[in-house]
Amino acid sequence: MAVGEKTIASLDESPWAEWLRCSETQLYHFFEPAQGLFIAESLNVIARAIAAGYIPMSFLIDTAFYTASVQQLVSQFPEIPVYLAKTSVLNSVTGLHLTRGVLCAMRRHAAYFDAEMLSGKSRIVLLENVMNPTNLGAIFRSAAALGMDATLLTSGCTDPLYRRAARVSMGTVFQIPWAYLPDAPNAANSIQMLRGYGFRSVAMALSADSLAVDDPVLKAVEKQLIVLGTEGEGLALETIAACDWTVRIPMLHGVDSLNVAAASAVAFWELRKRDI
Q1: Which residues pair with 105 in a beta bridge?
Q2: Residues 40, 30 contacting (CB under 8 angstroms)
Q3: 200-204 sheet: strands from edge to edge
Q4: What are the pLDDT digits (tens) for 172-215?
Q5: What is the pLDDT averaged over residues 152-161?
Q6: Residue 143 to residue 166: CA distance in whole angstroms
Q7: What is d(CA 10, CA 249) in angstroms, rounded to the nearest whole number?
Q8: Three-state DSSP class for 248?
Q9: 82-85 and 56-62 as β-strands: parallel, antiparallel, unpaired?
Q10: Total Cβ atoms within 10 A of residue 232
């Protein structure tokens, strides 16, 4: 048994009763003005968060999922409390859908843009007001798999550390550097700023003058900024106007657009610089 390990019959025997009843926003501000909390779910997500430098505060584990791999992970932190509970105890929280059996509360790091994060980067994605955590998580997973170097977000985007976003990303939100850009109604000013660092921008949007995503001129760009917009409305007109190119994904059967997460995967794949 790990040091600090405790089997509980009620969440009220732990700080998790309060944490799990908090909204994601309340957790974000939990220690305000200091950085707040986030909750990571699943062994892989937690392990990737730890590898990225996040420090566990507490574990909550379904006894049915307390496998040798999970025990090995928590044993690295003998000073961190580990609460074990049956599935029925975890399900006592209305709205909690625990699919991977392991939760870890962690303190946040600051995630504000610093130009130093651009050093050595040549492929960056900029997300404008992507609000759905499932879409955001899927975009991060594609970004990691398909060679993006960093992700920048406007203030209207959902938080990459929200439990669902991190889980859908398979923990890649901890592998791809990301940061929030200075607050603005759209990404146009940030695109202008990034142009000063040598990035040429591609707006993924439907337009009469848009290039096909597989156009060779796009793959020759040395430093790419791929800009994707919110679900439904897409990119703001000011954002599209600020970009160097507007790019479309050619489609069949009268389909005019893809879900933003699906579109991101196509764009990341097709817009890679290739030696032809």
Answers
A1: 39, 58
A2: no
A3: 178-180, 150-153, 123-128, 224-229, 200-204, 245-248, 211-212
A4: 999 999 999 987 767 999 999 999 999 999 999 877 678 888 88
A5: 94
A6: 13
A7: 52
A8: strand
A9: parallel
A10: 9
